[in-house]
Amino acid sequence: MSPAADTAALASTSGAPLAPLVAAQLNFVLSQANLPIRVGQIWSGCRDGRYADRFTLAIPFCLDYVYWDFLYNALSPKVAPDVVFGPDDEGFQPLVDFDETGSGEKSCLANWDCRDTGALLSLIKELREFYIEYQKKRAAEVDDARLKFEISTVLSKEGIEVCMVSSNGRPDEVKFAVPLLDLDLAKLVPGCPWKLPQKIHLQAVFPISRSYSSVPSAPRLKLVSTPDLKSFFSVDDVKLPPWLDGMCMAEYLPNLEENLKIQVVEASASIGSRRRFIEALAPTFGRPLEADPVHFVIPLQFPKQQPVLTLESSQHFNAQGLPIMSAPVNDYPWSPRWDPTEMVERIYDFLVDECQTFKKFCSDSIPQQK
Amino acid sequence: MAVGDDAAPAATKISISGAALAALLQRCAMADGDCDGLLSGRASTTPAPPPSLSDYDDHTPAQSVPAISISISGHSSLSRPSSLSDPLGRFHPSAASAGGPASIGFFSSRRRTALRPSMRELSLAHSLSKSLSLTHPLLFLLVSPSSPNLSTHSYDHRAFLLIGSRLVPTSLDVVNVGPVFRDQYHSFAPESPMPWLPLPQPSSAAAVGDTHTIGEQNAVDGMVEGFGLGKLQGILGSVAGQAAEMDGMYAGMLRRLEKLAREVEKSNLLVLKQENRNLLLRTLRWAHRDSHKSKSTHDEIKQ
């Protein structure tokens, strides 16, 4: 996001600008955080409402967001902000814990410097860490033998987040967000434009069962990826290995990760082969194309799946004055084992015949319209 | 000490007089931004209500726990925000809070925010409760004033008690004049270091001065040294004399009012009598006219 866009996004509901010292800190959060933090409402807590000084931030947690209100004071912007957490988190008391453990001096609030633009980001990071621990503690207190086992075996995995999910009318559940694949995806994709680190998570939602006799039901499993990753690898196409009765996550994860790793490596290899294919197209098809243009849609699973071709006429137009297009073609001869040049040549050969059919199709469709 | 005491003080009653609440809300509304401060008042343990006589044998004395009654009498606050605590929510006593009347808790006012304790308020509640060494749960009053325009003000407020490690929402009674108000007096114990000074009798004026004990004189010396009890009683006597004169004048005014009221009553009675008479006359006249009318119509029909 450009700085100009940031500033535009920070307009409060009443139109009052954020107090300058506060705006600097919030802008820093939006431009520098390696988490997708979003700003919700911005408003003023002053009587005259000249400067806005409080805002809601959506902070990513456990594949969802928590909404925290940050309260500054426009009249004394040097004072550290206070935070109001969500209505279900009244047990989350980070400052009380500081006092009890005597670790308050380590907090960024102990030496709050209003001119440090990174101060708010440090506070958010600090509170988020505490919140992750708080939710882990809550989940560990749940009286469910299977969950206790899962937590004791998996919770040490780095970056794992757990939370209690309670919804009206449904029994409580515990949600795990397990980061998968310990590799830097940005390195697999040369020249990638991603600003934030990309990650694939396994979301596992365990129902809490209070009875010990019954066989615990399987968790609801789902792969979730960060949004930018979708252009490179679609987690929706991944078939999850089945969850067997009596299984635990520590058993399930290695298998899944291995499976996923192969597919991700394939996907990154596909980028290279797509690029080579595109490069091979130019000598055969010419640049610029003077004949009827051909559109190539190259799937993420290239070269396993062949490109989808669409022909566009440069001489025939439909009633709306738009060039006539062919139906998508993907049933022409193909082998993923051909090298890019052969692929292109085969497509070219196919198109030489297909062009005649398309031309006939175009001239047939014109008299019908008249 | 109530901190960490998990026993549910089910019978904690919190009240604030209308005037004290009005003053507090005024303070919150007039602040340009957020403000906070200490609440003063007193807590008393009212003895368990006498066992009610019941016809049922299974009546269990469940209400034998003594009830705590906390009443807020006022507040003190500084003009700067977050005056009570550091950014970590640790209480730091300031000039305003030291040496004041007994603190029972604190209040916080923040505009247009959720009526839930914030991170810092929760921490302050813990810290303050420790440093005040209260014998009852600490009280926290959260106020959210809003003034959409300058002529209307609305206030949301919610009271909390620090029970265990949490601030639990509690109901707050606003006491105005009325039957509920009497409870305030029942839990009130007059305590004064001043000795009892009976009104000097004009006849025994000379004997005054010797009737006081050394203890009473010491109590007065604690406040003003070298000011004789006799002198104090003299002041009191002259004031009492003035008060008696004022009472006399006031009684005279009341008598005069009484007399006027009687006169008004008498004249009202006369007016009423006259009106009744008029009414009677009017009815008679109408009756008379009607009989004439009916006669003439009879004549027309005949013709």
TrEMBL record, chain A:
Keywords of the record: Apoptosis, Cell cycle, Cell division, Chromatin regulator, Cytoplasm, DNA damage, DNA repair, Mitosis, Nucleus, Repeat, Ubl conjugation pathway
Cell compartments where the protein resides: Cytoplasm; Nucleus
Keyword Protein transport found: no
Pfam families (UniProt xref): BRE
Cellular component GO terms, alphabetical: BRISC complex; cytoplasm
Top-level taxon: Eukaryota
Glycoprotein listed as a keyword: no
GO biological process, one term: chromatin organization
Record family assignment: Belongs to the BABAM2 family.
Protein name: BRISC and BRCA1-A complex member 2
Native source organism of the sequence: Oryza punctata
Automatic annotation (TrEMBL), chain B:
Cellular compartments per GO CC: nucleus
Protein name: Uncharacterized protein
InterPro entries: FAM175
Lineage of the organism: Eukaryota, Viridiplantae, Streptophyta, Embryophyta, Tracheophyta
A molecular function (GO) term: polyubiquitin modification-dependent protein binding
Domain of life of the source: Eukaryota
Disordered: annotated span: 41-60
